[in-house]
Amino acid sequence: MSEKRMLIVPAELTKKIDDNRGDMGQAEFINFLIDNQLKGGTKEPQYATKEEVYSLEQDMKKLLKSFLDFFVNYVVELGRQSPETDFEELTNKLEGIQKDLDSDSEEKTATIKWK
């Protein structure tokens, strides 16, 4: 059996440990935190660049356009007659997305909403 020692810490720290350790024991959790800190203490967090976010935005628009193209073609193939206004609305949306994809303006910005 390994030798054990007692570590006296403030009550607030003990509460933080208990709130965040999940199924781990206190000693196991503290050991885990120390190991992770020593292994990755010098690494800086990685963030997405502006270009990567813009590329993601463009890829998502292409995916949306592809999905809408598929949906419209699927409805047409089934022979289901949709009202003319719905079809025109979808066509206008697709054309708007295509125009947006075709214009490569540097002034565009991408925003991310976090929930």
Structure summary:
The chain is mainly α. It has four helices and no strands.
Task: Give an account of the 3D structure.
The chain is mainly alpha-helical. The protein has helices at residues 11-20, 26-40, 50-78, 84-102. The protein is elongated, with a radius of gyration of 27 Å. The two termini are 47 Å apart.
Strand content: under 5%
Give the class from helix and strand content and strand pairing.
mainly alpha
Elements, N to C (H/E): HHHH
What Rg is obtained from the alpha carbons, in whole angstroms? Answer: 27 Å
Low-confidence stretches: none
Shape: elongated
Main pleated-sheet profile? none
Give the distance, in angstroms, between the N- and C-terminal Cα atoms: 47 Å
Helix content estimate: 55-70%
Instruction: Tell me, rounded to a whole number, the average pLDDT.
Output: 80
Number of helices: 4
Count the E strands.
Answer: 0
What characteristics describe this protein?
115 residues; mainly alpha; elongated
Chain-wise SSE layout:
Blueprint: H1 11-20, H2 26-40, H3 50-78, H4 84-102
